[in-house]
């Protein structure tokens, strides 16, 4: 529900701050649409730049990053043998998960190429696990509320 409301607000250019310590929600950070993340543990506002500094990828790639690197705290398997640094490198080189799983699988030789070929299904499953589920009923409720 948090993602649904935050994305609804982004679409309408409504400034939004998501207050949580859940890094999965870094995907919602968007300086252009004034959508930020407030880390309740560190008591700091997290911008796109802060996401880049912390995770090494832009907010829009957090989902793809976790699909490759995994996240033990959320039981996201990722691709076995592809850690955080390698996930960052692959996303930088190929642009996104689709690029990694198409061009990267063909272009990577040696151990990394082997890991990607063997881990394609795991990467796709992992991405599904970290993808936001949008609730149309909640959007309808928000629209009705704003009209009132």
UniProtKB/TrEMBL annotation:
It comes from Lygus hesperus. SMART domains: 53EXOc, HhH2. Residues 1-140 form the 5'-3' exonuclease domain. The keyword DNA-binding applies. One of its GO terms (molecular function) is DNA binding. It holds the Pfam family 5_3_exonuc. This is DNA polymerase I. It comes from the Eukaryota. The keyword DNA-binding applies. GO terms for biological process: DNA replication, Okazaki fragment processing. Coiled coil: none annotated.
């Amino acid at each position: 529900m948090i993602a649904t409301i935050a994305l609804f607000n982004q679409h309408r250019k409504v400034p939004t701050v998501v207050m949580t310590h859940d890094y999965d929600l870094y995907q919602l950070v968007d300086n252009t649409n004034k959508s930020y993340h407030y880390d309740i543990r560190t008591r700091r506002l997290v911008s796109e730049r802060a996401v880049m500094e912390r995770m090494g990828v832009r907010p829009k790639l957090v989902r793809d990053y976790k699909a490759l690197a995994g996240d033990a705290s959320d039981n996201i398997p990722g691709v076995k043998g592809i850690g955080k640094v390698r996930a960052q490198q692959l996303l930088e080189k190929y642009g996104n998960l689709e690029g990694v799983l198409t061009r990267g699988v063909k272009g990577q030789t040696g151990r990394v190429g082997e890991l990607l070929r063997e881990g394609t299904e795991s990467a796709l499953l992992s991405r599904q696990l970290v993808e936001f589920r949008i609730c149309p009923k909640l959007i309808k409720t928000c629209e009705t509320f704003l009209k009132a």
